[in-house]
Specification:
2 copies of one chain form a homodimer. Chain A is mainly alpha-helical. Chain A contains 24 helices and 5 strands. The interface between A and B is large, with 114 and 114 residues.
Amino acid sequence: MDIGQLLLGRPLRRRDAGHEEIGSTEGLAALSLDALSSVAYGPEAIALVLITAGLGAMHYLLPISLALIGLLLLLVLSYSQVIDAYPAGGGAYAVSRANLGKNVSQLTAAALVVDYTLTVAISISAGVEALTSAFPAVQPWALEICLVVLAIVTLMNLRGVGESARAFLLPTLVFIVGLLGLMAWGFLHPAAAAAHPLAAAKPVPLFFLLTAFAAGCTALTGVEAIANGVPLFREPRQLRAKRTEWLLGGILALMLLGLALLTIRFAVSPGGAQTMLSKVMVAAVGHGAVYYVVALAITMVLALAANTSFGGLPLLSSILARDGYLPHVFAMRGDRLVFAPGIYVLSAAAAVLLVASGGNTQALIPLFAIGVFTGFTLSQTGMVVHWWHERPPHWAVRAGLNGLGALATGVATLLFVVTKFTEGAWVVVVIIPLLILMFRGIRRYYDRVGAVLMPGRTPAPVNARPRPMIVVPIEPRLSELTRRALDHALSLSDDVVAVAILLDPESDADPTEASVRQAWTDWAPPVRLEIIRSEYHSVIRPMLQFIDGLTTKAHQRRLVLIPEFVPDSPYGELLHNQIGTLLAAALRRRTDVMIALVPMHLHQEYVPSPAAGVDGGA
Amino acid sequence: MDIGQLLLGRPLRRRDAGHEEIGSTEGLAALSLDALSSVAYGPEAIALVLITAGLGAMHYLLPISLALIGLLLLLVLSYSQVIDAYPAGGGAYAVSRANLGKNVSQLTAAALVVDYTLTVAISISAGVEALTSAFPAVQPWALEICLVVLAIVTLMNLRGVGESARAFLLPTLVFIVGLLGLMAWGFLHPAAAAAHPLAAAKPVPLFFLLTAFAAGCTALTGVEAIANGVPLFREPRQLRAKRTEWLLGGILALMLLGLALLTIRFAVSPGGAQTMLSKVMVAAVGHGAVYYVVALAITMVLALAANTSFGGLPLLSSILARDGYLPHVFAMRGDRLVFAPGIYVLSAAAAVLLVASGGNTQALIPLFAIGVFTGFTLSQTGMVVHWWHERPPHWAVRAGLNGLGALATGVATLLFVVTKFTEGAWVVVVIIPLLILMFRGIRRYYDRVGAVLMPGRTPAPVNARPRPMIVVPIEPRLSELTRRALDHALSLSDDVVAVAILLDPESDADPTEASVRQAWTDWAPPVRLEIIRSEYHSVIRPMLQFIDGLTTKAHQRRLVLIPEFVPDSPYGELLHNQIGTLLAAALRRRTDVMIALVPMHLHQEYVPSPAAGVDGGA
């Protein structure tokens, strides 16, 4: 068992794949942590806007939260329909590809890629920030801790999605049960009411409320992940995925509602070193063990929210690769049946973001909301088109719901871009078109390749050709390698020519043309020898000139047979000149020249040639 | 003309090689700057020891300089004899290889490698130090300037030794003529005598004088370089090389003598920011233009002393490579006929030393003297053995001279090791054995390879073999690439099997076993098709299992023919999965499997197969 297997586990058979597929509850750990953990910062973002209009404005937290919950349920409903309609996964991308055409689907894909990549960096640094607030002593190693968490999440996902879901299930459950229980306790416990209730509400301008609403929309990011990752679920896939989607919607709605009510009940306001969620928790249960356990679970869930991207992006990139927008290698499953290249690229991109920002990714938060909400808007719009085409029973109601969702999320997207443009949203506006250009460039290349290869079409018939002319580059000094090369060459064709490049001798021990000819005559193989004197101190150039200048019979091809000594250690590679490799690379650029490599090993036992005439070929 | 040719010049023909060979005067610039420039620090090193016994002890500078000049002439004489006896170059290494056996010659080689490498770093940093003393403003960029000088010297040497010698000729001549002329002026000009002559000499202990002598021996480093580089000279090589050797000896002796006499005449003492040589120059000609021109030439010559190593080490390493102590690539000449790998490695090692020491290599000076004097001692000893074996006329006198030299340099080497051990000489004592271990490891490897290849021996006869069984890995979806592969395979043998690895289909568009068989039947090539269903999500593993499990006819070999799509840009490489490359790499580790690569280009014009039967092969 090598180190790779030790870290990643043994290769999985296709029939063991079920082991790595997930159920509804595991789906929460695998694909919902991004959405659930946003309860730790979404409501706070609303309150931070409201508080600028005075403490009384905090009363608007409840109606805004209700509006947010309404949008949440609209999105959950919409994505349930997406799961039914596009069970192959890909979510917003699949919807827009099917309904909105190539160009829009490329936009959707680019938005999702930005969203997923930023999610990893942001959630890990948010989790580590929560940790370093609790333990300031580890603050200096914040970036290092971020990278270790990233490495752990990456490794778990390389082992398989199921593995990571099961590993992250416990903190997820502690988070959900703990936070909901704590909220219930806050309502039921009479001693917990606030000493100083909030001042009465005063009217505020509508645009102000819209801004607060838009700020709170970050709490909805991640709702799309389940629809993107349907193929990760065990059969019946669609049912399990929808159950997870509704479970997520219900829990998140409860949490948002509870948090809004308790904030008002305890007259908690945002600001200071402590988060608003933390203040509410302290007001409900005090600074006891329960508080610490739930706080720790929140920290872990924030960091593990990165897992959502690892569930979504590799799958999305495999779909994009199949559509020819990303290199095909992204569609190849590894030994553990995961799309490993997508995982590596995502992890590397997140590591770059973390290092570049020094582990402080606050500034990135508005950027990633833009990606998410662009995806929301496009998938909802796509669903409206979908219903228009399909027209199942109640299609008008469904289309209406999706249309409403599209409108709401579209407005929110515009609000983000406008209000956050100078804060860095322009980066997204630059990166998304660049990604689209890349998708198109890759697709154009594959289209050109397809035009040459014509895959799927029955190829032209294969006809007989004469045996090729074989060129065997040899060293002027004959050796077992020469014998081996000619032995192999003669088994392929009878038209063989050996070529030696002769440099000017530098000492008496160096071979001369006469000595090379003499040695050849002594050996007497049934092969013609060409000796080329090199004017330059180069072996490759005259060899290529010779090969290019060969006259062959009609339809006869050329084959260059390169004997190669294969050392038994990597150090050994340094001790052989790489002329064979260089020659092969140069020939690879030529059309219609075959290259044959004859490896010879240091530990190879000497196998004598068979006696002449024993079933000799051709 | 590409960027490489722009920097390095066009490739040279062997018959143009004379262009890059050097004459006697150019030899001074190419191989003597190390020795000549040491006049800038050698006498100062003596004076720094003497001054500790009072100003009166400075009178001993003259006898010690005379002793040094005696040793110098002994060395010059000895190396002239080396040039005659070993005109192929290699100097001390060639002498000890011929006379002192393998083990001692490895020690000599290691000492020379250490010497040459340290010389580059030390001389460049010494030159730049002289420059930064003159212009303190550039002090902060000392390391960067060092690296730029290193890059220039490296580039000049990659263009060819002759090129660098001609480029460095002018500063060399200014240095020699300027410094000798300045000294002559110092003697002839009556006003220049010292106002306060030195106090009378007092007796000092012998060991003290020996230490001063040993310190001055650094002035002799570099005397060996000409004998190491004989092949760099134009014909008649030996004559020109000897002429350069004597020219160097005469000039260096004159400079050492003149400096000693003038130091005493002007009562100059070492210490302070100014070097002793600079004080003598000021005393002789004042702070005028002459002073500045000569000082600049000294600075340049100090830095260009690095050139000596570039003349010597690549040639030495080519000899070591021919002897199997270094990778063979070191014996290969590049387009410009220089031993480029040796130049690169020397330059890289010097850059590492410069960066590691921050451009301050003072501490390395004693280290490199050890390497040089070990070489001196061993070559002199070897010459004694040489004379003993050859016994030409006057051999006893010659052997006596060399024996005396061996004794003197041997004592100096021991003095270095003992007095400088704690100052870092232990590093040399560690590195030299490590280098010897490396030489031996490489030689052992080449001996093993030689036992397998038996180069130079007439190989066993080549006998006929049956045509190989050809395995063509194909993609389940037929394409032009498949046709091309089979077309090539059938021109090599009639025993062809196509193998497709089938993974579980992930979508309806993926090929199934039935669809692959059907497409094959529709196409109907004269080739058997094997479909392997992969349990794991891997293509390489089942392919290797299949190839390993093939049953062949007696003496029949297997050939795996891998069709490869060659993109027209480096980006294109990223867009193709590298399965062919991975498979070829895995097969290379196997014995007795040939690998044939069939490249196909994106811009390849479609060449239809010839009609069946047109001079079909076999």
